[in-house]
Amino acid sequence: MWPTPAIAILTGMPDTPAPELSYLAGLGRIGRPVSYSKGAAIFHLGDPGSFVLILADGLIEVSVLSQSGRKSVLAWVGPNEVLGEISALDGGPRSADAIAVEACRGVVVTRAALLSHLHDTPEAATEVIAALCRRIRNASDGVARHALTSASARLADCLLRLARDWGTPAADGGVTLSRTFSQANLGAFAGIARENVSRQIASMAKSGFVTHSAGVLTIHDLSALESLRDDARV
């Protein structure tokens, strides 16, 4: 079952979303429902920015490939998030690939409808500015992560980011990730090889910082991961 704000976005039901979701609800009323199967491309690098997608259910991976073919994950987009605002706003080409890593449902809003909505609804423009600022901060975080020379520090920073975005409280006071991320996913996000992720996770587990079982990752000691990350910045 979708969360209430997503139902309101997709069906026009009279639910009143939380203030921070008012922008999404407004867009939902002028868009059209869409669905994507697992593995489907939402868009590719270089495609025109002709629409934004409000995701109601599922998970989308945003990534780029290097000239050598190595994938770097820039972000994962989840429910009640918007994908593709930057190129839809400036009319430029897409700056990354966006692939559904789970079956997804959402609402597509054309660029023309988006610009018209922002022109007619000034408060929505404020929400867009806030969303773009979050994108910039996330991009800055990614640059800082890849500047870390230690694999353990990169992975620690990656896990802390995922805990912030996808964490749910664990029984021991730690955080369990609500989504499953493979070691290949974690490596592409942290900028290290999958084999190195395996070694680092094993080392962190031995120290009692994390557990990783059946794809479910729980962080038991956030402060220890913060120390691993911060010590590499000194």
TrEMBL record:
Presence of keyword Magnesium: no
Cross-referenced PROSITE patterns: CNMP_BINDING_3, HTH_CRP_2
Domain of life: Bacteria
Span of domain HTH crp-type: 149-223
Gene3D superfamilies the UniProt entry points to: Jelly Rolls
Domain called Cyclic nucleotide-binding: residue spans: 33-135
Keywords linked to the UniProt accession: DNA-binding, Transcription, Transcription regulation
Protein name (record): Crp/Fnr family transcriptional regulator
